[in-house]
Structures are given as structure tokens and as C-alpha cells.
Write a structure and sequence with these properties.
51% helix; mainly alpha
């Protein structure tokens, strides 16, 4: 229940609003596929899942503390 109430950002709110709008359109138009799509968007917003939520697209970055200096040697290929 705590996860449902915390962590609301713009994308999560946008998914909820879009999901409710799609769900209402599906109910008004009696279209099962639209109702399923709206339910999926509402569920994604409530559970805070998807690519844009909870660092779904974040790249793991770990700085290597044991970095060594790399030396380069120029090669002569004119022989």
C-alpha cells in the first residue's frame, strides 16, 4: 500500500490519466481490446512498472577504482 501512495512523478501520473481515458473510451464503445489496453495502462501506473518507472531504462554505472594508465605505442608501417 505504501508503494501505491509514494513515488508519483509526471510519467506515472500521465500513464494513469491516459489509462483512465482509454478505459472510459473502451467502456463507452464496448470494445474489449480498448478496455484491456486501458486496464494495462492503469495497472502500470498503480504498480509503478514499465520502462519509464523505477529506473527501468537506467544503465548500471559502476566506476572502476582500479583504473590503470594505458600506454600506446605508435607503429610504423612504411617498411
Amino acid at each position: 500500500m505504501k508503494a501505491l501512495l509514494e513515488g508519483w512523478n509526471l510519467m506515472r501520473l500521465l500513464r494513469l490519466v491516459l489509462g483512465v481515458a482509454i478505459l472510459v473510451q473502451g467502456i463507452v464503445g464496448s470494445d474489449v481490446m480498448t478496455i484491456i489496453l486501458g486496464t494495462a495502462f492503469v495497472g502500470m501506473a498503480l504498480a509503478n512498472v514499465g520502462c519509464c518507472g523505477a529506473n527501468g531504462c537506467a544503465v548500471n554505472y559502476r566506476k572502476n577504482l582500479n583504473e590503470k594508465e594505458i600506454s600506446y605505442e605508435e607503429l610504423d608501417n612504411t617498411k
